[in-house]
């Protein structure tokens, strides 16, 4: 964290906040100084926040981030205290609760962390934001139309590529209106979220004021550039959606917690789409006898958004003969007296060991958990060449699974970098009914390598193509089959990873 001299900065902040209040006609004696609002998070969203409440919400978030945020080094260019002062001035100009919360969400996004965000109250989103009945997805860096209201399917066919919105090129609009409001640890997830949009968080390429019209320029699947004008009127309506059969099938498949099928040449395929279903382990065990007959295994975690890491561990125990090491964690530590002593670390030898507290760089480390392979009998193991399919939606406990799997040579990852954000959130209630989350725990590989901020990078990268949404072509699955076939030809032992396919 870039550290400003605290005494000086806090005096300036206090003075600045007072000036803002005085400009609004507020003058306080000692007796009338406002306390923190009671039950601030329960305040009705249709009641406009006072300037004091807005400043309180901003200050609460700034304070808790200052003490607890785990990734300041990944935003080394950010001066957090100076940023706080800058937002104080901007909050003074917000006209309503929605503008205030939009600004707060922008502040949180400056920390570039997927678990550190400000949530705008749902009622404000409904009041100020809507979308046309169009669903987009990202592939090859482009905004792909994957589903539309049935009445639009001729005007804007699925498979079209959005080129511009209201005369502004897609990337320019994203940079100006969307990226600044997305809390994301990774650039690939930020792009994915920006194009797809979020109906609950009120941002996206197509987001705008309810009932407003927008002009879309797009590349038609037939190669022609065309235009269509649509209304942002999706909220509150029953919509008949039109999509490709491939997209519809994949969306339906994601709803299944676990599925199994036998592929060619003695390869078993199993997809596990979450780790929160309490029955996942039992469902997996039901397939063990079949999978144990396989020469190779494809484990698909591309749609797995996480859940309970203990469930992930129980499944992984079947896939290894050896103990595996999980994530190492650390979190910041504040000790008021140590911080006071640490100020004199440069002057006195005895105070040197406390200097990290003064610099807000004191940490407590938690050693990695060890997955004990012998918890599963050897005659129930499935230790064969295994390709694990991963992607942008692989997150949370699924990433924990991959951190363990990194220590097993026969487990090979294929696909896209993962979500790249995990940790322990500190939840806050904010004035006006919103909330905030701050990531307080830093997780890494056992050897200290970071994956938050980058994603877990697969051994073989296979970028998602436009065909993924329009056809049954699955380049990731094909790459997994090619890898396993190649390994069979090489005749490598089950616990020897094939490092180079070339």
Automatic annotation (TrEMBL):
<dbReference type="GO" id="GO:0006508">
    <property type="term" value="P:proteolysis"/>
</dbReference>
<dbReference type="InterPro" id="IPR005151">
    <property type="entry name" value="Tail-specific_protease"/>
</dbReference>
<feature type="domain" description="Tail specific protease">
    <location>
        <begin position="267"/>
        <end position="462"/>
    </location>
</feature>
<keyword id="KW-0732">Signal</keyword>
<protein>
    <submittedName>
        <fullName>Peptidase S41</fullName>
    </submittedName>
</protein>
<feature type="signal peptide">
    <location>
        <begin position="1"/>
        <end position="29"/>
    </location>
</feature>
<dbReference type="GO" id="GO:0008236">
    <property type="term" value="F:serine-type peptidase activity"/>
</dbReference>
<dbReference type="GO" id="GO:0030288">
    <property type="term" value="C:outer membrane-bounded periplasmic space"/>
</dbReference>
<dbReference type="GO" id="GO:0004175">
    <property type="term" value="F:endopeptidase activity"/>
</dbReference>
<dbReference type="InterPro" id="IPR029045">
    <property type="entry name" value="ClpP/crotonase-like_dom_sf"/>
</dbReference>
<dbReference type="GO" id="GO:0007165">
    <property type="term" value="P:signal transduction"/>
</dbReference>
<dbReference type="Pfam" id="PF03572">
    <property type="entry name" value="Peptidase_S41"/>
</dbReference>
